[in-house]
Amino acid sequence: MLATPAVAVLFADTLYGPMAWIIPFFVAMSTFGAVNGILFTSSRLFLAGAREGQMPQVLTMVQIERETPVPAVIFVSFLSLLFLAASNIYALINYVSIVNWLAIGLAVFVLVYLRWKRPDMPRPIKVCTLNIASPFTFFLCIYFIYIAL
Questions:
Q1: Torsion angle of alpha carbons 146, 41, 79, 95, nearest 10°?
Q2: Are 70 and 61 in contact (CB under 8 A)?
Q3: Fewest CB atoms within 10 A around its CB: which of 9, 54, 63, 67?
Q4: Which pLDDT band holds residue 13 (cuts at 50, 70, 90)?
Q5: Within a 10 A sphere around the Cβ of 49, how many other Cβ atoms?
Q6: Residues 6 or more apart from 61 whose CB is under 8 A from it?
Q7: Dist CA 1 CA 98 (whole Å)
Q8: Residue 123 confidence (pLDDT)
Q9: Is the whole-model pTM more than 0.85?
Q10: pLDDT over 80 at 8, yes or no
Q11: Helix 133-148 vs helix 89-117: angle between axes, to the nearest 10 degrees?
């Protein structure tokens, strides 16, 4: 079983026989659902960023009847199609992963920086000050991961 590249298909052939097609079908449906959720979540993030003045103002427009941020959905769809045009999928995965982790690392760094430089700043989410070790542990783990690469 470990020698085949498609373990789920071999499992379905063994267990379900003529109904083995349902495993790849439901895997495809699950993937489609995940992409659908990411598309709408990302477009809402672009909408929120535009409302805060961090993105172009055109992304704040919302379709009146369905309350959908159509320009943001179109923008995210365009970016997704642009990513699909990449010839090397592994390079694309590496680039997206690096940018994603850099954004997360920057957010954690800013959290520590603002806690240190502006301790009296109003914060919508209160975190115990003893929990300040969590960001440092995060940075230590990231450091070890990048050293391993």
A1: 10
A2: yes
A3: 67
A4: confident
A5: 15
A6: 69, 70, 71
A7: 33
A8: 76
A9: no
A10: no
A11: 150
Tokens of 92: 């694309």
Instruction: Return the structure tokens found at 112.
Output: 């520590």
Output the DSSP codes for the chain: -TTSS-HHHHHHHHHHGGGTTHHHHHHHHHHHHHHHHHHHHHHHHHHHHHHTTSS-GGGG--BTTTTB-HHHHHHHHHHHHHHHT-S-HHHHHHHHHHHHHHHHHHHHHHHHHHHHH-TTS--SS---GGGGHHHHHHHHHHHHHHHH-
Closest CA to 40 of 1, 69, 11, 80: 69
